[in-house]
What we know:
Layout: E1 4-15, E2 19-20, E3 26-27, E4 29-30, E5 35-38, H1 40-53, H2 70-75, H3 82-88, H4 90-95, E6 96-99, E7 106-109, E8 112-114, E9 117-119, E10 125-131, E11 145-162, H5 164-170, H6 174-190, E12 199-209, E13 224-227, E14 238-241, H7 243-251, E15 256-263, E16 268-271, E17 274-276, H8 278-281, E18 287-289
Amino acid sequence: xxxxxxxxxxxxxxxxxxxxxxxxxxxxxxxxxxxxxxxxxxxxxxxxxxxxxxxxxxxxxxxxxxxxxxxxxxxxxxxxxxxxxxxxxxxxxxxxxxxxxxxxxxxxxxxxxxxxxxxxxxxxxxxxxxxxxxxxxxxxxxxxxxxxxxxxxxxxxxxxxxxxxxxxxxxxxxxxxxxxxxxxxxxxxxxxxxxxxxxxxxxxxxxxxxxxxxxxxxxxxxxxxxxxxxxxxxxxxxxxxxxxxxxxxxxxxxxxxxxxxxxxxxxxxxxxxxxxxxxxxxxxxxxxxxx
Length: 291
């Protein structure tokens, strides 16, 4: 297993990408810059939920629809050996885990890690009141009134790294990474809830290197969003300039094995001021399209 780096974009329209419990569940924001934020844990949860729905067992999961502590989850495991943990639990192979048990704590550092996501555009929040049909107690005659917070439009970008050296320690396989690719494409739209509906993946790149040393850096630094209108509300109202990203990849072409990708056809890609297809601007690389 060698190093990989990931670039992932999805958008959110009239939804709450990641509520902050300390802020009445408002979408997480950098208010100084009007930038929408999404934690890496939120993204990993999408992946875990998708894998669980596909029938894979996980360490971080609910049991019988109830939340359990790490200690409680360990007690439910029939075999607590390292071999059994890594063979049976794909989320430990991907993201690692800390398993606290008296006299036998186990810590696995996950090879797959993401930075916090942030929006490439400035984001406006929508606040509205919602009324429940159920009263807060049996004596009340009317339903309760609460607040509902959503972003009007946010194009969110994540970067990630797969450590080849740590992958060996958690027994991460190429098949596991292909499942991660699949999850990144399908998890968010397939597992939508009331607060999350309106989110769609737009771009995914996993750059697989030929060694376990190469890291080029945060790939978000090499893309630029161009807004066709003020106050964008739809993916068709932007272009993504990847000129610098393609230049970076070309300079390091000898280090790159393959590029795994998907792109939404509605996302316009620009290269040196020319609109084109992603597969065309990356035609010098071995490309694997994620299905």
